[in-house]
Amino acid sequence: MNRTGRAVVASGQNFEIREYPVPEPAPGTILLRQELAGICGTDLHNWQKGIEGEMLLGHENVGIIDAIGKGVGTDYIGNSIQEGDRVILAPRADERVYGFHPDPDEAPHFGGGFADYIYLTYSGTCFIKTGAPIDVAVLTEPFAIAVHAVMRAKVKIGDTVVVQGSGAIGLLTLVCAKISGAAKLIMVGGPSGRLDLAKQLGADVTINIEEFSSVEERTQLVRDQTLHSEGADVVFECAGFLPAITEGLGYVKYSGVFCEVGHFVDVGSFELNPNQMLMRKNLRLEAVWSSQHEHFVRGLPILEQDEFPFADMVSHVLPLSRIREGFEALDGGYRLGNETVIKIAVNAQAE
Hints:
26% helix, alpha/beta, 19 strands
């Protein structure tokens, strides 16, 4: 039976919904009916710069198996699969990344999550069956980033950890630091609604950048919460703003760790004094680029245990027709109407 499906095509700062024929899965592929796709900070930063050409976005995905091509019987970790199963996927495959798909008019069309379907065609695709609710499962990709960051920074039992940025990546990094043994967790971000959720997720101290606008004041507040006011053992920069890097370096104690997590898009350069900011602090500087399949395998079971209020992070679910509102809310003070935005997800089935 011939079917058509919708996909959001992004170009510059514009969004257009187009209809395409839905393919029957070829051998070695599967077709998913999209349930939710999160709007990521990377999507936002690319949109702020202006999308070059045309692109199918949406790389934080959870969907239901609609049809299975010949030769596919199990997911990445060996679970048997069938039509109707819910799966999450790692966007990075061998030759391409789902959610950064150029040439949308070229078949098979459905290479991003802001659509009715997503067609898993690339070799090396990692998809995993899950029983998690959709508003938890959609967090798997950002959670994998947090898993990667905390593993890379080597958070130890008893550490004092600062997380800059209270969006999804920052909040999930907070959780990963907590379960890895951090004894004190300090969240620097805003607005207040996000910081309230940070407390529910384990933050011991929150510092609202809307209330404390001075870098010097915030730095002193952070240091006052550390042993002998020496600074934090580990600082994660998850805000994605260049000035946050130099500010965060000021939070780190001697022989501490600074881990950069917030700049997956090139937004420019900043001035750095390597002697004062790095060497004199005997600093260990880390950075993560995307996540490997290992981090999805490690992270998904923690989400499935649902020991934290993960679902509360998905503050808004919008239909395809309102995707621009979601991007503009993340670009304009993290509010949609009178409500604080945390994670916005797109549901192609919603009206």
